[in-house]
Write a structure and sequence with these properties.
mainly alpha; four-stranded mixed β-sheet
């Protein structure tokens, strides 16, 4: 049996497919513009809030460490005071000046330990005061950011609710279309589309000019575009030119 000959798709049909794909993508881009910066703002707020929570956790840990340090120094002071009391009592029972002087030095040493501990306690309390003030500011900022996030999410949710049906429909139509589109053309289309912020890869001829960059198109080239015998790109912006949609654009 002879092999079945592959069906050749006319260039006109290929161009129509590309033009339809562009219309679908343009509609999808319009929906994304409707959302504006909201998705990015929501993501940024979520990242900022996460960072603030991390900061609060770190600050609270530092405060707890300083409080533990104060407790340790207070315990050290108790031990030093107990030693001073003991050494003072022992001075009443010494046998010579050498023993008395040795105990006196021990008492002085413990008094110095108490002074150092008091200094460290004051420093720790100062740090706790600073950290707790910073903690309060951070918690207030978290509350403000969470309120802002809630508002942004509501706004975004309302837009998504309005556009979700259209997006699903566009995705379904686009998926069906690109399955039948020549891979080489799809690759070229995507390459051109990604070059421009407005995502326009397929341009119509409007008022004798490219509908993408508005560069003038010679009459003979316009005739060739209308004949659809070959794919013609704008000499200025490289967009693929099609003869469809002129009436809509001129209306």
């Amino acid at each position: 049996m002879a092999a079945t000959k592959a069906k050749t798709v006319p260039l006109e049909d290929k161009l129509e497919q590309l033009y339809t794909l562009q219309q679908l993508d343009t509609r999808f881009d319009e929906i994304q513009r409707l959302k504006g910066e909201l998705p990015m703002e929501v993501a940024d707020l979520e990242d900022e809030i996460e960072g603030l929570h991390t900061r609060v956790e770190r600050l609270q840990g530092e405060v707890d460490n300083f409080k533990q340090a104060i407790t340790d120094k207070q315990n050290l002071k108790k031990e030093s005071n107990a030693l001073i009391e003991r050494y003072t009592k022992q001075q009443n029972n010494v046998k010579n000046n050498r023993e008395f002087d040795a105990l006196t030095k021990e008492i002085e040493l413990q008094n110095l330990e108490i002074q150092i501990a008091d200094k460290r306690i004051r420093e720790a309390n100062d740090e706790i005061e600073k950290k707790e003030a910073y903690l309060e500011q951070s918690r207030e900022l978290i509350e403000k950011r969470e309120d802002a996030l809630k508002t942004k999410k509501v706004e975004l949710g309302e837009i998504i609710k309005k556009t979700e049906k259209d997006e699903k429909k566009l995705d379904k139509e686009r998926e069906k279309l690109i399955k039948n589109l020549e891979p080489r053309l799809l690759k070229a289309y995507n390459r051109i589309r990604n070059k421009y912020r407005n995502g326009l890869a397929i341009a119509t001829v409007s008022r004798n000019a490219c509908g993408g960059c508005y560069s003038s198109i010679p009459p003979q080239v316009q005739v060739e575009i209308g004949m659809m015998k070959r794919i013609i790109q704008c000499e200025n912006c490289a967009r693929i030119l099609v003869p469809f949609g002129e009436e809509e654009e001129e209306a």
